[in-house]
Fold this sequence. Notes:
By secondary structure, the protein is an alpha+beta fold. The chain has helices at about 1-20, 40-55, 85-90, 165-175, 185-195, 210-220, 250-255; strands spanning about 30, 35-40, 60-65, 75-85, 95-105, 105-115, 120-125, 130, 135, 150, 180, 200-205, 225, 240-245. The radius of gyration is 17 Å and the shape is globular.
Amino acid sequence: MNETIEMVSEIARGAxxxxxxxxxxxxxxxxxxxxxxxxxxDRECEAFIVGELTRLFxxxxxxxxxxxxxxxxxxxxxxxxxxxxxxxxxxxxxxxxVSIALEVRGELVAGVIFDPNRNELFAAARGLGATLDGDPMxxxxxxxxxxxxxxxxxxxxxxxxxxxxNLDNFARFVKRAQAVRRPGSAAIDLAWLAxxxxxxxxxxxxxxxDMAAGVCIIxxxxxxxxxxxxxxxxxxxxEILASNDRIHDEMIEVLKLRDL
Length: 260
């Protein structure tokens, strides 16, 4: 698996170079929804990643955000976000990344996230731990929510959604946590949780490619990922709660308040 991680890390770095080469010079922006964007850079990165994965792993499925992959029901599936943080990217806000994960028979077994702006590569393989630029990393030791930095985001349907728009949760966490951040790339949020820069994360309506690599990396870094009520996490579900494990129950209590 180490060799696989090395190969996929090089693919992620290659896609990151494409992002930096075009940064600040986006020519084409299309709208998939009211605030959901896709650019020529998303597509160029995805074509590069899918091409390399197909060359190296010709017998595997590929689930890619912009649809360039192939799904044929095989046991191994690569899950690709070629540019996580597209809105940030189009505005010149330097918080975006490449995310690639491997799912085998429904289980996440490897993940790589590359942040080209900080030249940081987060990687993990099941049972082998998590690394940042090759050095072992782990989640934080924060033991209380009021001493914790947490992060979240707002789904692309936030303008249409009412009950689950996350605004109520955001307000409650502002009152309970030490601070709340909303940087705009779920994959980086999860990677930063894994290395201890933030202590907890929650969000609605993310897609598998937003989460897969980050979930694998957090687990290998000693963190916990569940649904909001601590039931098993579902990569294809509608909610994610991740933490260093120490503040997980406190975060669940805050999320429960919506039902009161």
